[in-house]
Amino acid sequence: MSKSVFENEIAKQVGSILEMDTAKILDCIEVPKNKDLADFALPVPRLNKFKPLGNPQEAIKKIQAAFVLNDTIKEITVAGTYLNFKVNHTLQIKAILDQIIAQKENYGKTTQGQGRNIIVEFSSPNIAKPFHAGHLRSTMVGNFMCNLYKATGYNPVAINYLGDWGKQYGVLAVGFAKYGSEEALVADPIKHLFDVYVKINKDIENESKPDEDPNEVKAETSTTTTTTTTTETPVTTEEKPKEETKKEKKKREFKSKEEGGKPKKPSATDEEARQYFKKMESGDKDALALWQRFRDLSIEKYKQIYQRLNIHFDVYSGESQMGGLMEKQYQILESKGLVKESKGAMIIELEKEGKVLVKKNDGTSLYITRDIAAAATRKEKYDFEKMYYCVASQQDLHFRQLFTILRDMGYAWAKDLTHINYGMVLGMSTRKGTVVFLEDILNKTKSKMLKIMKATPEKFSEIEDPEKVADIIGISAVVIQDFAARRIKDYEFNWNRMLSADGDTGVYLQYAHARLSSLERKSGATFNPEADLSLLVEPVAHKMATILGRYPEVIQKTLTELEATVLVTYLFELSHTVSQAHSILWIKGQEKPIADARYVLYWAAKQVLSSGLKILGLTPLDRM
How far is the C-alpha of 609 from the C-alpha of 317, rounded, in Å? Predict the structure, then answer.
């Protein structure tokens, strides 16, 4: 990333004094948190990793004595083992704003990716089920990553890898035969199919319940009675059973998978569903026709939601498309001696990640098997540099197993796969048979925002499409609440805080952008690229310009960490500073040269804020 003329001047002189490579010194120069102390700082001991300097204080004295102050660097001071530099603020402001004027909306963007392919798999809902709150984070994080990679010169390929295969579709087909309604399916396919799925699973659950053993109930009651006479805490029949260890749970879950997932008490409905899915895998035309209809209806509905969220996918793929591609992967697994038979099933024993079932004893495939085939197919088709899976942290083990298996299969590119995990959204938990639809969340935020907007009739009357604006603000509120912290952290979904125009919210960022957009309308100022920027002498003008100057660096840091919160935190810092400037750097009523210079500063802030919002996946608003 290119450095400023000031950093280059510091590095050039220090390099000459210490006889060191300028590029290495550039990498060590920092922007201090306390901008009152200095504009740039050099931690001298850090240079030791490139060249032994001995006593840092001696090196500092040597640099300070030989450093030549000029029109660029105005002051050099010492703070501990740091050298602090103050630069010519007039030149600094002009250099930053001139760069933004020249590059406009491309400021901060780079061509470093040189068009190389980056695969981002995200959202990936299960067909015939509602797009629920659980898909929210994957969808937003994946879209942000695609925008970020595009801004840095890569070619991101957005893949929606639908959960469109597996026994659950046998369950759904059996359920539809029992509870389905053609009329309800046409009216609201997703809702109806979900209702059917819940009902048929309830049937399976009821059929699978073991018969009660009266002796066990009696013994439990007896235990309760005797323990209440002791000094220990009474044990009741409602007490939670002792939790099984992770090892016990893993063993139980694997055994269940290996046996085809059979419940302890056989369920006729579950077995019927299993046989139906087997027909699907065998290519039964009638079974596949019904499945295809459910799939098409689901995708049509999902696309409506994605359009609302301003999200585009390059590929709608799915587990179902891996059917003919898995045999090759099975052959590689066998040729490498990675699989062994266990009760008719195929398993892999990994050293650290445990046993992995890759084919059931009835011959049907599993999620991980289809993921293996999908990864190999994508590498062959796209020759990607990196591939990311945006999936919740509950799937950490699955992806460790997947990446290890691919590595053991001899795929060198397995090292280029990354699981982008994230925490839970709290406050949106569901009971069995109920679900929070993402569409309902968006509708609720839109409704709440419309109500807030109508509270100021004068502003509301100026908005051309209030419904659309309210929807964009609502989506912004949801996205920024999610991106406020590092993605691995759980967070509480809070309606009131999220929709507030005060504090660090999506509403606040949109308001900051809209206010910048209104300056030209309200002040009568116009953009003049030839404005005399030396007239920007106020401290807040310098503060704002230096924040704008950090934007390219922030984009690089965001790319390195793949954390949206890095960019969000920066945009809040910029917006707060712009808010301070509004009360000091007036435009209306000022002499034209001053008004022109100040308007260029605000125009540059709008360019950067707009660019950042778009990378986050948001539509910047000019009125609200």
Answer: 34
Task: Dump pLDDT digits (tens) for 406-447.
Answer: 999 999 999 999 999 999 887 665 444 456 778 888 999 999
Residues 460 and 392 in one domain: no
Amino acid at 529: P
Residue 62 among the catalytic residues: no
Say yes or no: 459 and 585 in one domain: yes
Q: What is the mean pLDDT of residues 123-132?
A: 82
What CATH number is associated with residue 470? Answer: 1.10.730.10
Give the DSSP H or E segment for 95: helix 89-103
Task: Take residue 75 and report the two structure tokens written for it.
Answer: 């002051």
3-state secondary structure 311-345: CCCCEEEEHHHHHHHHHHHHHHHHHCCCEEEECCE
> What is the tens place of the pLDDT at every residue in 241-294?
334 444 545 555 555 554 455 445 678 999 999 999 999 988 999 999 999 999
Query: Considering only CA atoms, which of 171, 167, 141, 143 is closest in space to residue 157?
Result: 143
pLDDT above 90 for 132 = no
Number of domains composing the chain: 3
Residue from 166, 146, 142, 165 nearest 154 by CA: 146
Residue recorded with tokens 């106020």: 538
Q: Is the dihedral of CA 436, 438, 440, 441 positive or negative?
A: positive
User: Is there a single domain that holds both residue 464 and residue 580?
Assistant: yes
CA–CA separation, 136 and 220 (whole Å): 43
Same domain? For 46 and 145 the reply is no
Q: Alpha helix locations (H) across 325-395?
A: 326-335, 367-382
Whether residues 43 and 156 fall in one domain: no
Which of the following is catalytic: 62, 104, 132, 444? 132
Closest by Cα among 418, 436, 419 to 427: 436
| CA distances, 448 to each of 34, 259, 356, 498, 499 (Å) | 40, 50, 47, 11, 8
Q: What is the pLDDT of residues 163-214, one digit of tens each?
A: 888 888 999 999 999 999 999 998 888 889 989 999 999 999 999 876 555 4
Question: The domain containing residue 157 runs over which residues?
Answer: 138-211+254-322+374-425
Same domain, 420 and 459: no
- Per-residue model confidence as pLDDT tens digits over 86-113: 999 999 999 999 999 999 999 999 999 9
- The yes-or-no answer on residue 129 being catalytic is yes
What CATH code is carried by the domain that includes residue 263? 3.40.50.620
542 is a catalytic site residue: no
* pTM of the full structure: 0.86
Do residue 444 and residue 413 come from a single domain? Answer: no
- Over the chain, what is the mean pLDDT? 88
Which of these is catalytic: 135, 192, 360, 446?
A: 135
| Residues 178, 54 share a domain | no
Give the number of other Cβ atoms within 10 Å of residue 330's Cβ: 17
